[in-house]
Design brief:
Radius of gyration: 30 Å
Helix content: 40-55%
Number of strands: 13
Strand content: 5-15%
């Protein structure tokens, strides 16, 4: 018995009469075609939607958009790789009707329409809402860092620039001193050594001047760091694996783990990002109130209060910060506030009363203490390294008390946040292999991630609803 053998490559075959016969009836590429055909590209902000009366004809924006949606859905993001797919991939040949744009045309389309991809993502979110795929009861907000094109060696902070200038000055002093010694000492090798030192001095001076210029640019712009390859990228927090990149924020509905809202920022920390991410998601979902859960990195009184004022119910755990925590002393949350007597009850059972006041970020800050109780306290060494302990409270801190009370009533909400929001991030970084952006600039990076979020939602909905359900929704 022999193995299965193929046809002779020179043999003439009776192939199907049309390319359509090669694409199955439930191939996702058919939905991409129908979905993009139903989108108003002019309203979304795409350029050159209507062809010009004169000049060389260009490719229709709908065809290039279909190519990008297909590419991101199938983990092909590079314009050169997309060009290759137009020549060899039968699904792409069917989708573009044998069109074969070159890689520059494909890349220029993404760059020229960088602000128009976000409305396309929003269109698909509205389609998901039409299919009743959102629970509209709980939103999980979180952020992740994705690497930028900029290498960490081409990112400079004020501290790194000042340190290099200091080191350069020390080296220059040393080299100039050695150069003076070389001029005095006359021997057979002095000439070559002096020449080498002169080259080193010139190189250090040149780099020192560049660093001085960058430091002056930071002073003019008010920024705290500068990137040379991608000016909008920033060095991320030290505990993340991304050295220089962008902070991607998403709001995910808990029912099917679909992304409702997404945005990309170059802000290093998540603090202050909750309301501006969750509020647009609330608007898209069309609900008057919705629960929003985030991790302790989003803990900021002003942001939590803004979230509450926007009609959302925030769940954010309170982090324990400050010198007492670092010193291993009693944390602030171990002091319970008694609103009736306007006092704090310490772990020893003593009441701390208002002692002084100040202002922090425009808010009144009250300091509470009880010096007499601290003098005779048996556990003072566990509470403070000084003579007495002071606990402060902001004027709007009642908002945080209510958040902590809600968390105590619903302790499982933090675990639900984790399993909800980590699903899209894991899929995007592992399965979709997007651990780094391909483009430079904040606007272009936002366009990239809009396509990524659209592809994630599309793949997820195909698994949940199926091809027939999606096509029925588009037809409706």
């Amino acid at each position: 018995m022999s193995h299965i053998v193929g046809h002779d490559r020179s043999q003439t075959l009776l192939l199907p009469e049309s390319v359509d016969d090669y694409v199955g009836p439930e191939n996702p590429v058919r939905f991409i075609d129908a979905f993009v055909d139903g989108v108003d590209l002019t309203g979304a902000g795409f350029v050159r939607v209507m062809p010009q009366a004169t000049g060389r004809p260009g490719y229709a924006p709908k065809d290039l958009l279909k190519l990008y949606v297909y590419g991101y859905l199938n983990r092909v993001r590079s314009s050169r790789r997309l060009e290759a797919e137009t020549h060899r991939n039968i699904e792409v040949i069917w989708l573009l009707r044998h069109l074969k744009p070159d890689f520059k045309t494909i890349a220029d389309f993404r760059r020229d329409n960088r602000r128009a991809f976000r409305p396309i993502f929003r269109e698909f979110v509205l389609l998901c809402r039409q299919l009743d795929l959102f629970g509209r009861q709980l939103l999980a907000v979180d952020g992740t860092r994705i690497k930028a094109v900029n290498n960490k060696d081409r990112n400079f902070t004020r501290a790194s620039l000042a340190k290099f200038i200091e080191v350069a000055d020390a080296k220059l002093d040393d080299y100039l001193h050695r150069l003076d010694q070389g001029d005095v000492t006359e021997n057979g090798t002095a000439g070559s050594r002096v020449e080498n030192l002169a080259e080193k001095i010139a190189a250090i001076r040149k780099r020192r001047t560049r660093c001085q210029d960058m430091l002056a640019e930071l002073d003019r712009s008010g920024e705290d760091q500068i990137s040379l390859t991608d000016p909008d990228s920033r060095a991320m927090a030290a505990h993340t694996r991304v050295a220089v990149g962008y902070n991607v924020q998403v709001a995910v509905d808990a029912k099917h783990k679909l992304i409702v809202e997404q945005q990309v920022t170059n802000q290093v920390v998540d603090m202050g990002q909750m309301t501006q991410t969750a509020e647009p998601a609330q608007e898209v979902l069309g609900v008057e109130t919705i629960a929003v859960v985030a991790d302790k990195g989003y803990f900021k009184i002003e942001d939590i209060e803004a979230c509450k004022n926007a009609g959302m119910v925030p769940y954010v755990p309170r982090p324990q910060r400050g010198p007492s925590v670092k010193a291993g002393l009693f944390r602030k949350d171990e002091f319970s506030y008694d609103a009736a007597s306007d006092s704090f009850v310490c772990p020893a059972g003593q009441h701390l009363h208002p002692y002084s006041s100040s202002f922090l970020r425009g808010l009144s800050k009250i300091n509470y203490t009880n010096k007499l109780a601290c003098d005779d306290c048996a556990i003072r060494s566990r509470c403070t390294n000084g003579r007495f302990r002071t606990v402060s409270r902001l004027e709007n801190e009642a908002v945080l008390d209510r958040v902590q009370a809600r968390l105590a009533e619903r302790p499982d909400v933090l675990d639900r946040r984790r399993e909800t929001v980590e699903h899209p991030f894991g899929t995007i970084k592992q399965w979709m292999n997007q651990g780094a952006f391909l483009m430079c600039g904040l606007e272009q990076v936002r366009a990239e991630f809009s396509l990524t979020a659209l592809a994630y939602n599309l793949r997820r909905v195909l698994n949940i609803v199926g091809f027939a359900g999606l096509m029925a929704a588009v037809a409706a």
